Amino acid sequence: MATAYEKIAGGLRARIRAGELAPGDKLPSEATLVKESGKSGPTVQRALSVLQEEGLIEKRHGIGNFVRKPRTKALRDNCRHQWEKDRARESVELRKQTGATEHDTGLEIDDLVFYASYRKTKATAELAEVFGLPEGTPLLKRTYRTRYAAETAPFNLVTSHLVHSMVEGNADLLDDANEPWPGGTQNQLHTVGIELDRIEERVTARPPTPEETEELELLPGTSVIVLRKISYDIKDRVVDVSDITLPGDRTELLFTTRLERW
Hints:
Blueprint: H1 4-17, H2 30-37, H3 41-53, E1 57-60, E2 64-67, E3 74-77, H4 80-87, H5 92-95, H6 100-105, E4 112-122, H7 125-131, E5 138-148, E6 157-163, H8 164-167, H9 184-190, E7 196-206, H10 210-216, E8 224-233, E9 238-247, E10 251-254
Parallel strand pairs: 3-10
Antiparallel strand pairs: 1-2, 4-5, 5-6, 6-9, 7-8, 8-9
Helix pairs in contact: 1-3, 2-3
């Protein structure tokens, strides 16, 4: 049998799902819910906490509780890398029309806000081992954030490392003012004669750090998906190591495995 707070939460949940309370609408005040339900303030507060944890409502301190607007979802599939490679040698006009985030979300390029920051750094022991290079090898560290203009949180947190000596032949690749780069990383590498052979992705999940919770605007209890992406060229060199933190409440990973016919 449902408890008192579960009944209150269930009633509000039903009104939200039926559209009676639409995204952005303010919920009845706690005092009103106490009066309507005949239950105590703590019982009503617990019911509201349940809906907050489910991501259905959000509390704006000093204002009240509101139906949460659904965040734009991202579907990240493993075919995206071939899609990007196919575009790497297309004309700049075609490459400017869309990018990986648009591919994942269905949004248009004008819907997005981009941020990029580059700096020269040195390979840590961990990164040096992945690249198969000496510790301290100069790298280009790139940080990316992309968000929907109608939202405030980015779709993910991306940190990419390239071997500096491999890309310095094209000065444009060292300048973050050139982002978003039409055609993405595969086109950037193509400009210095690098063709990718394969991409290895390792996926884990964990609780977010406080900083990740704040930047990704995560609800309590939401996990993050952590993806380590390693790109190998046709000479079997590691040419890019990217660490991507994805919010678990708005990201779906899709893996399609083609099987050979008998």
